[in-house]
Amino acid sequence: MDFKELWGIADWAVLVLYFIGVMSVGFVMHRRASKNFKSFFVAGRRLTVPVLIGVAAAGWYDSWTIVGLGELGGTVGLSIVTFYVIPSSLLRLPLAIWIGPLTRNKLPDYVMTLPDMIRYFYNKSSGVLAAIGPVASQLYCCALLFAVGEVLHMVSGAPIWITMIIAGAAIVVYTALAGMWALAVTDLIQFAVMTVSAGVVIWGIFSHFGGGAEFYDAVSASDPEKLNLFGHQTVGTAFGYIISAASMYVNAQSYQRFGAAKGESEIRTAYSLVLMIGGIFSAAMVIVGMAASIMHPDAASPSEGFWATVFSVLPTGARGLFVASLIAAVMSTVSAEFLITGGILVKNIFKDLFKPDLSDQNILKGSRIMIVALGIFVICGSWFWRNGIGNAWTIIGGFQVAVFFVPILGGFFYKKKTPMGGLITIILSVIFYAIWQFALNAPMGIPSSAATWVFSLIVYFIVCNATQNSVKGGAAEGGTEDVK
Hints:
Elements: H1 3-6, H2 9-28, H3 30-33, H4 37-42, H5 49-60, H6 63-75, H7 79-106, H8 114-121, H9 124-129, H10 132-156, H11 160-209, H12 212-222, H13 235-245, H14 252-260, H15 264-295, H16 302-313, H17 318-353, H18 360-381, H19 392-413, H20 419-439, H21 448-466
Helix pairs in contact: 2-11, 2-17, 5-11, 5-15, 5-17, 6-15, 7-13, 7-14, 7-15, 10-11, 10-17, 10-18, 10-19, 11-15, 11-17, 11-18, 13-19, 15-16, 17-18, 19-20, 19-21, 20-21
């Protein structure tokens, strides 16, 4: 399919207006974000329900949720809804009604990053090691950016490396200018674009097939396996997706945005609403992928089939809106990862390890410099995912869950946690994951995330109980106060 022939003036107009709007927000909010690092990183902790809905949805749903789930819908079938979409929605509910409010109200004001939180629960060394998680997320950002570069390449005909540079540079500029304030405002716009676009494309697909029942019959006639419980998956890979669905518990974005909320009631209201909307949005993208496997079975790749389907069922203008929704999803997630990782590298690595007297303004300045550096890294690294981004979340999210899920939840709720328990669990979990994944090649088909998660749980309880006598009154370097 020649995507350039289907791409009209109205589509370009929608896309250009979107980019102008997003970039304008960065310039407008620059002064407010430049007051101090707290304002830049967590928007002064003043986000209300409408804005939180936007940042929650745009942070939890990205181009993997659009193109990645579309690819999986076309290759493995409806089972990805059973083993990822539904579990991810259910597992996020405790975050919305319980852990989010705890993060906002029970942790000290100086706890602004994920390593800050790990350090507060355990010790300084654990906090430094916790920077591994957000840094690993930059590899996931590479996959997200590639999805944007690919579709812009399809519609414009420009070399893909140029489209990735343009998209990456835009994200870097508005994130470095206004930090969390830019994310808060633009994510609200992006959430609306994503939601409307999903509804429009599903309407177009059902209209093409003549209705929902007719679509189901077409899938059954084409490949009935896609409608079975496991579809084209093994039990091991299906369980791996369930584990990766829990990765929001270790995602630095979640805790940063909890900390940016005005209060706990705002978190409960906003994130509970997002759960329902997000689950529907994710399931819709799986349907698009399943339709693509029928409508364009000879596409060069699942992602090309996905976009061919979108362009086939949508009129001009609406195509531009859907592409804008993908870009919106990517920009919201990648900009948040740039902001978080840049802040962590400066505040939790450079300041804590090398320059303890670094001033707040220099932390802010250094974070902006790191955002630019991360942008360059992600643009260059995006080529790694050129063969598809369907597995990106399982690989990166699975690693984060495997290493940090137990220490984070233990920090919140386990009364017998100790500094050594957190530190040793993180170190040994990283080593175990590397051995299981790369040396043993996931024996017996057991995903590395699942094997490491069980290993991490065992190590945590053994070490915490073994080192209880060395902790006097629950006090230790960095703070091990219980969160009640």
